[in-house]
């Protein structure tokens, strides 16, 4: 595998010196777009791939300096280029539009004032805001696969939109095209099947299972660590499950164990800013959105479960859970396989009309009322076309996927990143945080990666004298006082939004997780709330699960009341409980970061978290 992985990591970068300059000045009644080419920059070759620039491009003339209509922008003279594959093998590529150096006395125009149209092989992208394709250096104009002998022909128009008012006279845009290509990428399924450490079991004609205690099947996708479970032989799609419990919620109402229509199904497939699916990166490009999930009732003992018949209960969804048969198949019915993460978590399988099956921290199969609150490990099916660009499948170097392996993110807004990604924030041993969501437009909600510690020991706090969180109750006063002084220094506290709304809805057994934020399950209004600079996560919120094995972590409070006497906490085993507000549990602060927080370094992983700063 060593030699194969080295080849897989080889990425060839072509930087083409197309300089696109857009100048606006009060004294000038037009703007110009010019392509400057010199010498060999007109044709750039890497192996069998060529990017060919049309030296006859004459640039564009715009009507005035205050912006033009889309129709005029689209009809202006474009800059043209071709991407040619002179070899006989297909090549994956991505074309970026990067910022180029501008003069010391120049001011760069904000992307929000610019629109573009990219015509590829005769098809227009249409008038599109430049902000919609990412921020420098990750503006993706086009990506895909070019077959051997193939040619893609492009023309690019760029103009100032008349839809946005602003003071941009005298400002400059200077850009260059960058193309990244790789002929070494391998499809995920092929790599997993070829790795002998994965102990591939082909006995089941419908699912080829990865088995054993610690196979090389770790994958990093959309800010979360996953394990590859099986490959579907019919289409080579790959089933994944998160390594850790992403949250904890009631499965469904009491005595209703059906997955279809359950709170669990809603949570997993929720595409709102609060939902799991809605926070997965470009999920339409990565996952099978009409996957089938076998939710057939089964009360058979672990080790004796057989695949349900074709007449079982099948649900079609983008996101589901593993069923008991799949859990059993990961290690031939033993409890010490790689899917035992040392926590409690729901499966897809009903045990009866009142109980649903779950796995406990020792890896044993049990069942409990569907109204109870256990950990959630979402499962997805990656498309067969998904390819690996880096990693070796180990926990310290998980596989990275093509299209989800950004580098050189300096200057990128944090608000453009994904739930689960890691951030360096705070002091000393409490300096690792994770993105939760972008619940408030433009802001980035984060939470500590684990409950706060002092000299290696988890600190604890009572919730308060009652079950209602505020900036002045026991835990709220700590968060908005001592925490800001001693756990977060001024360089970080200046990034925190001063006033955030925290939702305090009550969630009892057998009710929907949505009630922690909304007055009803139709999300038609907000539940009781309070305002504070620092708060806690709600029950059922993203990243409110446990991310280490039982005994390595501690129980911690959420914001969510269970009743007028009890508050929800997440136990160190991954399930949620309700306890008296005067009890002492761990603290996981949650805050909103300002809209102008930018990334200055890092990759967003646990090993290389994002470094951040306020943009000037």
Globular, elongated, flat, extended or rod-shaped: what is the shape?
globular
Number of helices: 9
Proportion of residues in helical segments: under 10%
Question: Oligomeric status of the shown chains?
Answer: single chain
Radius of gyration: 26 Å
* Structural domain count: 3
- The span between the termini is 46 Å
Q: In this structure, how is the largest beta sheet organized?
A: 8 strands, mixed
Task: Give an overview in words.
By secondary structure, the protein is mainly beta. The chain folds into three domains: 8-184, no CATH class; 187-382, no CATH class; 406-614, no CATH class. 9% of the residues lie in helices and 33% in strands. The protein contains nine helices and 44 strands. The strands form twelve sheets. Strands 15, 16, 17, 18, 19, 27, 28 and 29 form an eight-stranded mixed beta sheet that branches. Strands 1, 2, 3, 6, 8, 12 and 14 form a seven-stranded antiparallel beta sheet that branches. A hairpin with a 6-residue loop joins strand 18 (224-231) and strand 19. The radius of gyration is 26 Å and the shape is globular. Residues 1-41 and 56-65 have low confidence and may be disordered.
Tag the structure with descriptive keywords:
616 residues; mainly beta; eight-stranded mixed β-sheet; seven-stranded antiparallel β-sheet; 9 helices; 33% strand; disordered N terminus
């Amino acid at each position: 595998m060593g030699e194969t992985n080295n080849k897989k990591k080889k990425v060839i970068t072509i930087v083409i010196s197309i300089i696109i300059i857009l100048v606006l000045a009060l004294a000038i009644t037009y703007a110009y777009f010019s392509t400057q080419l010199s010498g060999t920059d007109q044709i750039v070759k890497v192996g069998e791939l060529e990017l060919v620039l049309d030296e006859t491009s004459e640039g564009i003339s715009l009507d005035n300096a205050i912006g033009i209509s889309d129709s005029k922008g689209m009809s202006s003279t474009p800059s043209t280029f071709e991407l040619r594959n002179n070899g006989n093998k297909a090549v994956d590529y991505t074309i970026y539009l990067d910022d180029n150096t501008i003069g010391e006395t120049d001011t760069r125009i904000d992307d929000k004032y610019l629109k573009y149209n990219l015509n590829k092989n005769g098809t227009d992208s249409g008038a599109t805001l430049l902000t919609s394709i990412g921020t420098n250096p990750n503006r993706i104009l086009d990506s895909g696969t070019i077959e051997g002998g193939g040619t893609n022909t492009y023309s690019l128009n760029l103009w100032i939109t008349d839809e946005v008012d602003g003071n941009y006279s005298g400002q400059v845009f200077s850009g260059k095209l960058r193309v990244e290509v790789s002929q070494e990428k391998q499809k995920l399924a092929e790599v997993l099947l070829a790795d002998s450490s994965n102990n591939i079991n082909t006995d089941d004609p419908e699912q080829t299972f990865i088995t054993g205690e610690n196979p090389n099947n770790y994958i990093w996708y959309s800010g979360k660590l996953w394990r590859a479970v099986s490959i579907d032989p019919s289409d080579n799609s790959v089933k994944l499950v998160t390594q850790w419990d992403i949250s904890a919620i009631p499965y469904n109402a009491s005595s209703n164990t059906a997955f279809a229509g359950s709170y669990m199904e809603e949570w997993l497939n929720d595409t709102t800013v609060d939902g799991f699916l809605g926070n997965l990166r470009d999920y339409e490009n990565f996952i099978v959105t009409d996957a089938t999930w076998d939710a057939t009732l089964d009360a058979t003992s672990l080790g004796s479960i057989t695949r349900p018949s074709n007449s079982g209960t099948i649900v079609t969804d983008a996101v589901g859970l593993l069923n008991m048969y799949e859990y059993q198949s990961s290690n031939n019915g033993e409890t010490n396989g790689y899917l035992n993460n040392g926590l409690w978590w729901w499966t897809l399988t009903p045990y009866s009309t009142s109980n649903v099956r779950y796995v406990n921290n020792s890896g044993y199969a049990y069942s409990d009322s569907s109204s109870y609150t256990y950990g959630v490990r979402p499962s997805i099916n990656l498309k067969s076309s998904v390819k690996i660009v880096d990693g070796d499948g180990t926990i310290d170097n998980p596989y990275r996927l093509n299209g989800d392996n950004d580098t050189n993110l300096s200057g990128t807004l944090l608000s453009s990143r994904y739930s689960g990604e890691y951030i360096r924030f705070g002091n000393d041993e409490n300096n690792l945080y994770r993105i939760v969501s972008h619940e408030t437009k433009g802001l980035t909600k984060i939470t500590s990666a684990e409950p706060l510690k002092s000299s290696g020991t988890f600190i604890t706090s009572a919730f308060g004298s009652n079950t209602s969180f505020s900036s002045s109750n026991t835990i709220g006063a700590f968060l908005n006082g001592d925490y800001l002084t001693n756990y977060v220094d001024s360089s970080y506290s200046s990034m925190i939004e001063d006033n955030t709304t925290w939702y305090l809805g009550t969630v009892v057994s057998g009710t929907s997780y949505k009630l922690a934020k909304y007055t009803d399950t139709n999300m038609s209004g907000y539940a009781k709330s309070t305002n504070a600079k620092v708060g806690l996560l709600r029950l059922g919120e993203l990243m409110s699960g446990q991310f280490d094995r039982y005994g390595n972590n501690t129980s911690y409070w959420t914001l969510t009341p269970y009743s007028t006497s009890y508050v929800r906490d997440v136990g160190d085993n991954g399930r949620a409980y309700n306890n008296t507000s005067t009890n002492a549990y761990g603290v996981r602060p949650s805050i909103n970061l300002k809209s102008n927080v930018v990334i200055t370094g890092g990759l967003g992983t646990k090993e290389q978290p994002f470094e951040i700063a306020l943009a000037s």
